[in-house]
Amino acid sequence: MAEIQLKSLAHSYSKHPSGAEDYAIRQMSHVWHNGGAYALLGPSGCGKSTMLNIISGLLQPSEGEVLFDNVKVNELSPKDRNIAQVFQFPVIYDSMTVYDNLAFPLRNVGMPKAKIKAKVDEIAAILELGEVLHNKARNLTADEKQKVSMGRGLVRDDVSAILFDEPLTVIDPQLKWKLRRKLKQIHEQFNITMVYVTHDQLEASTFADKIAVMYEGQIVQFGTPRELFESPNHTFVGYFIGSPGMNLIPVQRTETGVEFDGLPLHIHPELAKYAETSTSSNIKIGIRPEFVRLSNTPADDSYECHVKYIEDLGTYRIVTLELGSQTLLARIDEDQVIEGDTVHIGFPRQWLKLYIDEFLVEGATE
Amino acid sequence: MNKVSNNKAWWLVLPVFILVAFSALIPLMTVVNYSVQDIFGPGQAYFVGTEWFEEILGDERLQDSLGRQFLFSAAVLLIQIPLGIGIALMMPTRGKRASVCLIMLAIPLLIPWNVVGTIWQIFGRGDIGLFGWGLNQLGFDYNYTANTGDAWATVLLMDVWHWTPLVALLCYSGLKAIPEAFYQAAEIDRASKWAIFRYIQLPRLKSVLVIAVLLRFMDSFMIYTEPFVLTGGGPGSSTTFLSQTLTTMAIGQFDIGRAAAFSLIYFLIVLLVSWLFFTAITHLDKQK
């Protein structure tokens, strides 16, 4: 087990990177603490797998350092880093039985037979592979294969960390849920550092204690699912986390705060001060659809607004609204009644977030 | 449902039937026909039953030739298959160097058989051949025309030079087909080079190795031109293989009945051994 530290890390697949867009990972630093269950969340192509391969040692970073317990491991192979990794598509050694597959990583370091058997039996039981243990691995179903693939990582309980690269992609939803629970269970049992790459926020938040959101080759926020939801650090986090994502409204500075389409927005005075002193013209206000207040009667700080349409998603509804030139989304309970096609909406001040150059302006918490 | 009976559809099979008849059935049956007759000349053929077969199976000269043939094929397979795999493993996988290696490997395969024989015939000569002269200069008493061991070594060396590239190319393509993910997984699983070869590369080379083994067996078992040009079967009959014995019998002595019976037995041996190889390799790990 180890604490994994990434120091000024950057990676480019091209030999002579000329600009930021040539980098799969842009310079960043990060620490994965010992024994944590982490998720690395981001859209396809944001550099998640690259980062995983750099941590495991399959890839040498072009810049920066990878430290395991404060020891630089850049030049070490995955074997010497003692790290396990599970890939997106199952890799099984198809000439071997399931048992031999699971025993393979242990045999390779010459572990005694009896100990191997104990470990393999233990993991096979957890993954429910007992019945097929002595079958040839090539005859397994897709999800059994992925279980074997995962099992090869899990049999090694002395590893520095186990990395999962979207391991449940090929598995059907029912089993997905079950396997995620198993992983969590294994994590609690053995307390191994686990990093779980996914592009599915639900998967990330059910597995991990803390989620790192990655965007354009950088970790833009690292926090608990709640933190990511309530105060996204970056407009991308706001947009990517939540269903639907955060409403982001481009605004202009005024003497008293900010406005858009001539409509003043009542943000926290402290935030207004920031907006005032900023020289950037890229200012946005963000609010989650969950926090938009909807009412059939006007209030002091409400805006009259046209209802474009309402989607019923079973337990809740998504209302699409038009305010000035902006389209906003609001999420309301199923039982809230909306009369006609005009509503009055309000933005509770504590949920109005200010973004300058796409990054959150912090400091105003009520 | 009513089954429509339309026997005219059989006509569609006719072209294939004709093709197979001309390419395989008729020639084969001609040989079968010859093998049960004693033919003195046109219109002078007498049915002799299985007499030729009995004679051939008891012929010591042929038995010796068959023994040599098996020995040669075994040596060819034992050398060329591991060597070919080894070369394929050492080859660069991409870039210019890979292309250069591929071309270098392919050159021997492009040379006509009799030219290969001629090349080695000269190459091995003690007076003007670099190889033979070189060995003699180094103090070895090398002479492939007089010395049975030297003749065998030269014929084998020539065949290894000529055909190992085929095995290497087949294995190379097999290795290229292994997804990178397997090597990554193996690296993560701390597999040694040997373990990677034994558990990842070798199992995935199986299908190309079946082809390589079969091709090399059949080719080496039917070898004719190269040793004929190189040693002429000598010294004595030490490098006279089956096909040369057969040719001498059929064309040299015009002993068509005997030669036909011999051909059939020869054909059956190739068929049988190929079948054995194929079954053995494909059933190697068929169990559950």
Structure characteristics:
heterodimer, A: 366 residues, alpha+beta, Rossmann fold, OB fold (Dihydrolipoamide Acetyltransferase, E2P), 2 domains, 6-stranded mixed sheet, 5-stranded antiparallel sheet, 31% strand, B: 288 residues, mainly alpha, MetI-like fold, 2 strands, flat, MetI-like_sf (chain B), Multiple sugar transport system permease protein (chain B), MetI-like (chain B), Sugar_ABC_transporter (chain B)
What does this structure look like?
The complex is a heterodimer of chains A (366) and B (288). Chain A folds into two domains: 4-238, P-loop containing nucleotide triphosphate hydrolases (Rossmann fold, 3-Layer(aba) Sandwich), CATH 3.40.50; 245-360, Nucleic acid-binding proteins (OB fold (Dihydrolipoamide Acetyltransferase, E2P)), CATH 2.40.50. Helices cover 26% and strands 31% of the residues of chain A. Chain A has helices at 48-56, 78-81, 98-107, 113-126, 142-154, 173-190, 201-207, 225-230, 235-240, 269-277; strands at 4-12, 23-32, 37-41, 63-68, 71-72, 83-86, 161-165, 194-198, 210-215, 218-223, 247-250, 252-253, 258-260, 263-265, 283-287, 293-295, 303-312, 316-323, 326-333, 342-346, 353-356, 359-360. In chain A, the strands form five sheets. In chain A, strands 6-7-8-3-9-10 form a six-stranded mixed beta sheet, sandwiched between helices. In chain A, α3 packs across α4. Chain A is elongated. The model of chain A has no long low-confidence stretch (mean pLDDT 86). Chain B is mostly helical. A two-stranded antiparallel ribbon of chain B has the order 1-2. In chain B, β1 (37-41) and β2 form a beta hairpin. The mean pLDDT of chain B is 87. Chains A and B meet through β6 and α5 of A and α8 and α9 of B.
